[in-house]
Amino acid sequence: MTTSATPSRRLTARGEERRAQIIEFATARFAADGYHATSVADIVNGLGVGKGVFYWYFDSKEQLFLEILKDAQRDLRRTQQRATAGVDDPIRRIALGVRAGVVWTVGHGELRRLVDFARTEATFAAAVRAGQRVLTRDAMAQLQEAMDTGRIPVGDGRALASGLLGVTTTMTDALVEEGRVDAGTIADLVTDFCLRGIGADPV
Question: Which candidate, 28, 21, 55, places its Cα nearest to that of 41?
């Protein structure tokens, strides 16, 4: 897999803006046309820039796609952290974290499709799994506190955390695919199911 020196390059505000522009445009093209069908030439031609601009920020199309995945995973986690900040009750933190994750996912349809693709692609599957491990560890901490304080039955924290992540992802995808469009309604259904699954009372 290509390793880039790009993340260590200090960018100006204008450079950060250009990098974000490339990522935003490429995300839309990858989601619409597919990763394999989209070339670097398609991206730079669509943006009206030369290939030199692209390669200043990214070593390859593969590295660009990995950056899109990493940015998405970081943004999802930060969204969940903001939603649960300052909340003492572990069950409420779990519920708010699940809900925030579902709303984020529904609101980022292009990224959801790219992550779904990346899970099945050997080149990118490891990056998806790495992001999932971070989210699983976050959930494990909340679940362990809930077990320690008697809020849910004692069980295998890692299995429960993996289950929460799997159910949240699969159920959200299924509800979106069947035509549900209201993020709040989808989040309510997924959150309620997850809480019942870990033996917690709905909040």
Answer: 55
Specify the pLDDT at position 1: 38
Please tell me the distance from the alpha carbon of residue 30 to that of residue 116, in angstroms, as a whole number: 12
Q: How far is CA 169 from CA 17, 35, 113, 164, in A?
A: 31, 21, 12, 8
What's the pTM value of the predicted model, to 2 decimals? 0.90
Does a structural domain hold residue 191?
yes
Reported for 105-111, long-range contacts at CB under 8 A and 24+ positions apart, including other chains, are: 105/76, 105/169, 105/172, 106/172, 106/176, 106/183, 106/186, 106/187, 107/183, 108/72, 109/31, 109/176, 110/27, 110/28, 110/30, 110/31, 111/27, 111/31, 111/68, 111/72
Whether residue 133 sits in one domain with residue 37:
no
Residue 192: Cβ-neighbour burial (10 angstroms; 0-12, 13-18, 19+): middle
Q: Are residues 135 and 37 in the same domain?
A: no
pLDDT tens for 92-150 read 999 999 999 999 999 999 999 999 999 999 999 999 999 999 999 999 999 999 999 99
Cα–Cα distance measured from residue 157 to residue 169, given in angstroms and rounded to the nearest whole number: 18
Cβ within 8 Å of residue 113, ≥6 positions away: 31
What domain count does the chain have?
2
- Residue 173's domain spans which residues? 64-197
Instruction: Summarize pLDDT for 69-84 with one digit per residue, the tens.
Output: 999 999 999 999 999 9
Cα distance between residue 199 and residue 42, in whole Å: 50
